[in-house]
């Protein structure tokens, strides 16, 4: 049974269409990267998954339960790090964690969570005085309470220093190792690349690709760069000519003095290049490869039609998301439970 199943999910805000029929299945144990340009619909999808907002059409099952049927039960098994988390005014860091523990009805030790996210020494200070990165660490700690089956992390590295980013990545890996599913929404492609085994790319409210990074690289005909150092007596030019004739090879640069070839080719052609070098009498002393970065893949998927808002996608100027997501066609019930999660996004404009 998948951890997350979206089936034909649409979302309309008046005449603004945010999601146009999303079908998505995230398997248990996946660390799934959710990517898309600004306004693509990532936060809207997450809000619907958490039942902070209702889909206009389609259905959402999380951990095997329809979120609309039993949102409280579902949220008890999820840890959420929302975008734009702001601590409560009057509570210390420890009290935030304690609140999450009590809300979920579990018996975690606050100290362990605080230490895990690197907030030791600051736990008894009012969290409203925390820096942005400290608040983010606190939100991550609250999300980890109760060993959730699913972690939903919306831009988790916001405000984190390099130590914090590394800690966050380690925690994501540790959580995946114990069997949790992680849904990781981020613009910071390097981080998605570092931790996710599958990614989905959203554009204009449509899911345009879902795959492993390896396959995505293959489907866009992504270029790899193969640097091969030749050993033995074979002529660099002769080997280069043989490689040039291969399908999937776009360019070959020869460096006679270093006895090196730099080959631009599709990811799928790399092995054929190495085979051809050997077949043409070359002996491979050493080689290294460089892959297309996720950033290049992202641009190649999302840039063809530009990342500007599509028709019917513009958000009314100056309208606060938190307010807007609770009016009109919205019937959010996020206030009906003793929410164990930090508040959803409250940013005014993006
Ligand atoms: N409450 C709302 N009222 C009207 N339109 C909205 C509302 N919330 C989102 N939208 C619109 O829905 C679309 C998707 O927005 P969403 O916030 O989900 O995008 P996103 O991918 O999370 O963007 P970002 O990366 O900038 O956070 C946008 O066109 C946005 O303007």
From TrEMBL:
Biased composition (Polar residues): 335-350
InterPro entries cross-referenced by the UniProt entry: AAA+_ATPase, ABC_transporter-like_ATP-bd, ABC_transporter-like_CS, P-loop_NTPase
A GO MF term: ATP binding
Region: Disordered, residue numbers: 300-350
Domain annotation ABC transporter: ranges: 4-229
Keywords assigned by UniProt, alphabetized: ATP-binding, Nucleotide-binding, Transport
Keyword Ribonucleoprotein: no
Superkingdom of origin organism: Archaea
Keyword ATP-binding annotated: yes
Basic and acidic residues biased stretches: 314-329
Record's protein name: ABC transporter ATP-binding protein
A UniProt-annotated Pfam family: ABC_tran
Family affiliation: Belongs to the ABC transporter superfamily.
